[in-house]
Automatic annotation (TrEMBL):
Keyword Hydrolase applies: yes
Cofactors, names only: Mg(2+)
Keywords, comma-separated and alphabetical: Hydrolase, Magnesium, Metal-binding, Nucleotide metabolism
Native organism: Allacma fusca
Name of the protein in its database record: Deoxyuridine 5'-triphosphate nucleotidohydrolase
Pathway per the UniProt entry: Pyrimidine metabolism; dUMP biosynthesis; dUMP from dCTP (dUTP route): step 2/2
KW Metal-binding (keyword) present: yes
GO biological process: dUMP biosynthetic process; dUTP catabolic process
A GO MF label: dUTP diphosphatase activity
Length: 184
């Protein structure tokens, strides 16, 4: 992270390139279109390296300093029929930072139309093209346009658990209560 007057400038604003020059590090403020406002200070400690594998690929970016992820675009267009699934290409490969993984998550604007992301974990040692599985759960055709934002990548820390088989687990207030067991 790089310190500047007034706030901490970090690569969360542009994880794709690591270039922070466009985010006002010299002036100690963000440009008007990237104003932090009431969101707070952007924070991160990693850089997501991105390599274009196709000339139409769009480098991911976070659209606001408070955004959890960077938007991913598809390089192909397709009409998705109701109940269909399709693997969309991004034309990008990424290098996930050590100690983290990338989660491919839905965009709320597509989810509202019934388009959801399936799967979505990118391990830190994967270097192939990032692909996104979309499913159409709506009752109508939905056209996914080339270069449109179809998902987002969110970088999470990895906590490796040591797996230990035991004869019994400790009890809890919930115990085996599953779906809907906590009330409403």
């Amino acid at each position: 992270m790089e310190q500047s007057s007034g706030f901490t400038v970090s690569v969360v604003a542009n994880l794709a390139t690591g270039d922070m020059s466009e985010f006002g590090t010299r002036q100690g403020r963000l440009p008007a279109e990237r104003n932090v406002g009431s969101v707070g200070k952007p924070t991160t400690t990693c850089v997501l390296k991105v390599a274009r594998r196709h000339r139409e690929a769009v480098v991911p970016q976070a659209w606001t300093p408070g955004a959890a992820g960077c938007d991913l675009h598809t390089i192909e267009g397709k009409v998705m029929q109701p109940g269909s699934r399709h693997v969309f290409r991004t034309g990008l490969a990424v290098e996930i930072p050590p100690g983290t993984y990338g989660q491919i998550a839905a965009r709320s604007s597509l989810a509202l139309k019934g388009i959801l992301v399936l799967g979505g974990v990118i391990d830190q040692d994967y270097r192939g093209e990032v692909k996104i599985i979309l499913a159409n759960y709506s009752e109508r055709d939905v056209f996914i346009e080339p270069q449109s934002r179809v998902a987002q990548i969110i970088i999470h820390k990895i906590f490796h658990a040591e797996v230990m088989e035991v004869g019994a687990l400790t009890t809890s207030a919930r115990n085996e209560g599953g779906f809907g067991s906590t009330g409403q």
